[in-house]
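thread from #wetlab-drylab

HS: before we spend reagent money on co-crystallization trials with flavin mononucleotide, can we at least see a predicted complex? here's what I'd submit
DV: go for it
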Amino acid sequence: MISINQRAVTSEGKILSNRKIGAYHHIIIEIEGIAEGAKPGNFIAISVGGVESNMPLRRIFAIYRSKAQSKYGSIVEIIVAESGKGSAWLTRQIEGSTLYITGPLGTSFPIPADPINVAIIGGGYGAAPLFDLAETLKNKGCRVDALIGAATSAKIFAPLEGKRTVNSITITTEDGSAGKKGRITDVLEDLLKENQIELIYSCGPMGMLKAVHEIAERLSIAHQISVEESMACGIGICMTCVLPIRGDDGIVRMLRSCIDGPVIDGEKLIWSEGIPPETLGRHL
Amino acid sequence: MISINQRAVTSEGKILSNRKIGAYHHIIIEIEGIAEGAKPGNFIAISVGGVESNMPLRRIFAIYRSKAQSKYGSIVEIIVAESGKGSAWLTRQIEGSTLYITGPLGTSFPIPADPINVAIIGGGYGAAPLFDLAETLKNKGCRVDALIGAATSAKIFAPLEGKRTVNSITITTEDGSAGKKGRITDVLEDLLKENQIELIYSCGPMGMLKAVHEIAERLSIAHQISVEESMACGIGICMTCVLPIRGDDGIVRMLRSCIDGPVIDGEKLIWSEGIPPETLGRHL
Amino acid sequence: MSFDYSTSIAGSVFSNPIFTASGCAASGRELAQFFSLKELGAIVTKSIMLKARSGRDTPRMAETPSGMLNSIGLQGPGIDKFIEEDLSWLISSGAKVVVSIAGESVDEYGALARRLRGIKGISAIEVNISCPNVENRGQVFACHPASARAVIESVRINLGGEYPIIAKLSPDVTDITLIAEEVINAGADGLALINTLLGMVINPKTLKPHLGGKTGGLSGPAIRPVAVRTIFQVHAKFPKIPILGMGGVSSGSDALELIAAGASAVSIGTASFGDPYATIKIGKELQELLISHNFPSLADAVGIAHDR
Amino acid sequence: MSFDYSTSIAGSVFSNPIFTASGCAASGRELAQFFSLKELGAIVTKSIMLKARSGRDTPRMAETPSGMLNSIGLQGPGIDKFIEEDLSWLISSGAKVVVSIAGESVDEYGALARRLRGIKGISAIEVNISCPNVENRGQVFACHPASARAVIESVRINLGGEYPIIAKLSPDVTDITLIAEEVINAGADGLALINTLLGMVINPKTLKPHLGGKTGGLSGPAIRPVAVRTIFQVHAKFPKIPILGMGGVSSGSDALELIAAGASAVSIGTASFGDPYATIKIGKELQELLISHNFPSLADAVGIAHDR
Ligand SMILES: Cc1cc2nc3c(=O)[nH]c(=O)nc-3n(C[C@H](O)[C@H](O)[C@H](O)COP(=O)(O)OP(=O)(O)OC[C@H]3O[C@@H](n4cnc5c(N)ncnc54)[C@H](O)[C@@H]3O)c2cc1C
Ligand SMILES: Cc1cc2nc3c(=O)[nH]c(=O)nc-3n(C[C@H](O)[C@H](O)[C@H](O)COP(=O)(O)OP(=O)(O)OC[C@H]3O[C@@H](n4cnc5c(N)ncnc54)[C@H](O)[C@@H]3O)c2cc1C
Ligand SMILES: Cc1cc2nc3c(=O)[nH]c(=O)nc-3n(C[C@H](O)[C@H](O)[C@H](O)COP(=O)(O)O)c2cc1C
Ligand SMILES: Cc1cc2nc3c(=O)[nH]c(=O)nc-3n(C[C@H](O)[C@H](O)[C@H](O)COP(=O)(O)O)c2cc1C
Ligand code: FES
Ligand code: FES
């Protein structure tokens, strides 16, 4: 069993910039100790609501980019979609505000030893952690094709620098307001075949991950996914964030996606809804 | 029975200025509808902690000054002592912040029909509502002597404009850091006699009010007090803020200090601790 | 198509499902300067006792995280003065009125019920058998099936069927559905869920219990999950009994939670302390939410969480 | 004069009174990277059952105002694997360990106790008879005097007096002092107060219960007044029985409230989710507060609210 990310620290950060891009907020945070240990796929946990908050739990955000030695010091960047109360609070915080953060947390995307052809597939803000990954892969000599989809153009996260790191980028929107009209899965199979993709990295809503996985499985392409489960702690102490995962011993266990994930081998995840019957310790 | 202040409105205000003076914060709020109906002695109730606050109850502050037609629009001013979490939050709010306020609430200081000699006696921030009162009294032709006390000089609230409205001002501090060393009651009797005071207005901690009342009673001087009881609602609907008060019918009832007060005739208040035995409906 | 926002509790019809909570609107008059009481589904009055009562020592309240404790102890003028001054004013204002009663004995509840007979303009009687702010917590009739039953029987007999009886229960019991069962069998037409939870705050400076009465009743958003659970449990077992839900509602979305769990109407308590207009705001928000969920009427949403 | 921060529960001594709460620190290892576990009074492990258990369906948590619901359902590896992997690691780390156990039957509790005999390095056994996250809430042994008693007797007999027994009770009962009385008579050396309150959240979008398990346990600051009240009531009746207090503690001042009410030690649960260092921070704050109140030792503050 993998234990908590050994590089995690708890620290106080300061917002350097909070800008709206499309439907999202791009927040740059100056904070010591997190970028230093961060790898693509890791996430951070942020306290929300201030000193007299009625929200006791931290909120989880994938690291979009991080840099230990930028000209502003050690920085971490995130892409925030306003969803409920906590993310709404976050998007309202102005430059100079203090944030309490724990990170980097969770597993990171495994990097292939050899320069192979990979695809990064991002749904909505799920694209955020993939461009840093793309850069690492590029430096390894991989060919990287990107496929980014969302409901509408405002929800496509594909920053200019990101676009430069990849060999190609395909965009789909359900309403046709940007790129091809339709879903990621409408164009995925062609893209995988054309570019002879050997490994897929995907991040987005569970429905999308599942649809991608069906195609990956059919084409026998390895698939690393980053999942998004409700997390109360993010550090492995509460057991809320579990998913059924088959171990190397063949046994299915409910593993914590905050420490055994969020990056998981798509083949090991049991994709059915609920707790699968063969899970260790399943009751009744 | 007096009912809720008929001029009360609930409205959204904006902080125009928030400055530290001594141990207190002087906060000026632009808000429609409150100054219009406010009288000296009234208070306002302010929501604290922002949208995601863990503090469901409003905080109560005496109106220090208010002006319906200032050059900044309609304004209300308060003097805030940092006490617990809510007042601390308030002192941190910067210019431009929004505040949700209900007011003016409660009774006001009764103004004598004739120009008589009065004393205003304020303990700590209790002095805040008394200077506006003094101005009203001055305009009525009264002689006004002020006696302001606190533990230490930083807690003496006696603004320059305030000083100008009164005929004399005496200051006491327990540590001697300003004015006379000692308590209000050490100098009170002399002051009352010297100036032939006919009516006392006092506002401050209950212990001080009680000590002042003993002297007022002994000298047979009328005494209007402004009390500070814990209030959950401030508008008469919860029954938390009660005090034993003797009615004109001679019966003692637990009355709500938010609508039958905070300004109360000192003679009608039963000063004993707890619910007096003769109170209507006392149980056991 | 027009949306039907009305609700009914055992034959009494209300224009909308947002009521005040007993003890959180005094006798209605104080709120009347902020809005017309006719905008509310109903005013539920502060629980009234047979005789005048001064209540418990101060301090009577403590704020807690997203909640508050109160230990009012049922201060009030007694039923006669209440009827004469408060109730008559309320009825003449045109508001719908639910009168809440509390007694120290089974007989006292009966006597209260008799006093209320024949008054035109009362929509229902809420029988508070669950106030934790009494000197002897053994007096919380809702804590024990037999005493809960005895009170409701006494009220029913003495009321002579004039108004629907709503029994207000305490969440501080091992199995609230058992208490619900007893009071339904005893003739309660509806249930009010929930009264406050028994709590205590110790003052960190004096290290003594902060409240004059030591313990108090916990209300506010903090207790909402307990209210939702309780309403859900009781509605699952007694789907035909109307429930007046309450506990920590401060938005339309909160109210919808209680309705989906099984409440036919929702009382707003603590939220009115933080905002005198809370009931009005919540009423509007709830209506918008129900419409956006495509419910043709409020009634269609009641208990919907059980079917999905 | 030096301040004595240590505490003892039925003979087991701890360097300070701040423990983790069962289920809120897994088996300790996860927190060990943030600070040394030796800094804690003790680690209380996640309640372990006889066999491996996968727990309840997801989602397993919902945030609520100043609180949260969880419906983990006692997921765990089973006692054997726990002893082999988690407990051995914990003991070797030098941490003080309180092992929490949970069974589905009286016999299962007994079997768990037997399995734990003879393990060096356990400071106490916490017997969780109050987990609301089980399929059949009838299984909450702490809800009924007879079942509570039977479990503790079984544990006592099977443990052979090796470690102190701490019975963990539920606040969701009509009178917690009655349950306390039973478990004390059955041989509990201490009490853990309180487990979570049964609650529910309905998702405002789907209008279904949000949690996979429908109901969940309410924890966090929201429930602190209930914890303080419960500890106060039980300490008043059984002043000699040590209490491990818990429920919504997130600052030293909160911890002091529980101690003044009668707790000899305080477990920190939900607060650690919001801040991995919560236990350490609270421990420091509490010590400073106790010193500023001029207590020569922690022990002098225990139950002080009863004397003032
Ligand atoms: C590994 C991981 C990476 C993520 N990365 C990003 C990102 O880069 N950008 C981004 O905008 N969002 C991201 N999310 C989702 C983000 O955590 C939620 O949108 C956010 O927590 C919602 O909080 P809220 O207060 O706005 O909503 P509320 O509904 O008020 O939240 C209530 C509780 O539920 C939890 N919750 C609600 N929605 C989600 C969700 N979708 N996923 C997990 N927990 C949830 C919250 O954390 C909180 O504890 C990520 C989630 C995970 C697990
Ligand atoms: C009529 C009246 C006029 C007041 N005028 C002023 C003023 O001009 N300036 C000023 O600084 N303060 C004033 N106060 C006191 C002020 O209301 C409290 O200091 C403040 O509410 C404390 O809130 P908190 O969140 O900081 O403290 P907390 O201790 O966190 O408050 C918890 C709860 O207790 C209540 N509470 C705590 N202390 C008091 C108190 N002393 N009086 C009443 N309620 C209390 C709070 O309102 C809140 O509901 C006045 C109080 C009253 C009743
Ligand atoms: C100050 C106060 C006084 C209350 N008085 C009564 C009462 O007299 N009778 C009663 O049945 N409930 C009383 N309650 C309980 C409320 O009616 C309601 O059941 C409870 O507060 C939960 O709702 P809330 O969270 O919206 O406040 C009182 C509550 C508060 C806060
Ligand atoms: C996620 C979670 C899991 C829990 N698991 C257990 C458990 O396994 N055994 C137990 O006795 N209590 C369990 N509890 C209850 C806590 O130990 C504690 O009694 C409760 O949460 C109140 O404390 P808090 O408010 O500090 O969290 C759990 C609580 C939470 C939040
Ligand atoms: S979020 Fe707590 S264990 Fe994963
Ligand atoms: S503060 Fe609510 S009645 Fe006075």
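DV: The domain at 9-105 of chain A is CATH 2.40.30.10 (Elongation Factor Tu (Ef-tu); domain 3).
HS: ok that's useful, forwarding to the group
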